[in-house]
Amino acid sequence: MRDDHRSRRPRRVGLVRWLVRGRVELTTVVSGALAVDSAGPWISGLLAAVGGVLIAAVPGVRHGVIRAYQLVVLPHRVRSALTEACAVDLRGRLPWVLWALPAGPYAVLVEVKLRAGVTFEDLYDAVPNIRTACAAPEVRVLMRRRPDRLAVLLIRPRWGLW
Predict the structure, then answer these.
(1) Contact yes or no for 83/94 (Cβ under 8 A)
(2) CATH fold label, 9-155
(3) Which chain regions cross the lipid bilayer (predicted)?
(4) Of all residues in the chain, what percent carry a pLDDT higher than 90?
(5) pTM over the 0.70 mark
């Protein structure tokens, strides 16, 4: 049974959700604008076209780009799912999502550091939200050696067109 303080949404969740969802897109737009400003539109366009052809033509490069994309995007999607599930401490702060690592050819392991007041059960209750946010058919929450760390194993996440 969930405590009473977890049943209400904290006030800052809307701002956190906006920051998490907009950070990757904002970084992409700003880096593209800086590339066009420093190299010019023709050279930037030529480099983007060569990169796109290389990614489309070489399967090894394509899989590497998809994997790198997943390792960047999936921690943000896990953080977004934790926001939706209200897996927060008494002050309304989310657990730290530290990093993502490949865990085999079709799995990604996301490391989560718990704050005081957030438990394994809170993350386990957030599994349906994580499954939806990452479009993964199977999600497992694993205990780590340290009591304040958990790992979220995403099996066959769809973010990245596998």
Answers:
(1) yes
(2) Threonyl-tRNA Synthetase; Chain A, domain 2 (3.30.980)
(3) 20-36, 42-61
(4) 9
(5) no
